[in-house]
Amino acid sequence: MKKFKFRFFIDYEREEQWINNMAEQGWHLKKFWPFVFLFENGISDQYIYRNEMVLKRKKDYFDFLDTMNIEHVNSFGVWAYFRKRKEEGPFEIFSGKSEKIKYLSRINTLFILACLINAFAVLLNIAPIMLTHQVNQAFPWICLLNVFLISLLTIEIYRNHKHKKKLKLLTHIYED
What we know:
It is built from 4 helices and 6 strands. The protein has helices at 12-24, 58-66, 97-132, 138-175, and strands at residues 2-6, 27-33, 36-41, 47-53, 71-76, 79-85. A hairpin with a 2-residue loop joins strand 5 (71-76) and strand 6 (79-85). Helix 3 packs antiparallel against helix 4. Keywords: Membrane, Transmembrane, Transmembrane helix. The chain crosses the membrane at residues 110-132, 138-158. InterPro entries: DUF2812.
């Protein structure tokens, strides 16, 4: 049996946690798209899932993970999901705190770019209003949506920054 679930996540760790909770209930991720997840019913608590933003050399990276019994489930854009059998032990994509810090920096770079694009869209929507003094009914809603997205992304950038700071502190403590 298959099941579609609709969810909006901006925090990749919460999304990952939700996917793993679904796996504990016997629902295994097969595919995903923005806000849509396709699950297939199977054995409960069989896999551990991880997601990652993969930008370069995808095939080489997927082949490398395959040598460690890590299965590439699905990709959409720069995002990919992987899984490993739970019986094989813990499963982490990142080998250490410094790799996690770099990863959070890459995510923040993507989110900052998305914020700038949305800010530019707000300016493009406001410019005709300023020039013609006429308001199209769609403009305020589009601007509000862009501002809302900027707000969500800014909150996540801040959370990632705090997480990075904490990891840097832990890395520094363990180096001494």
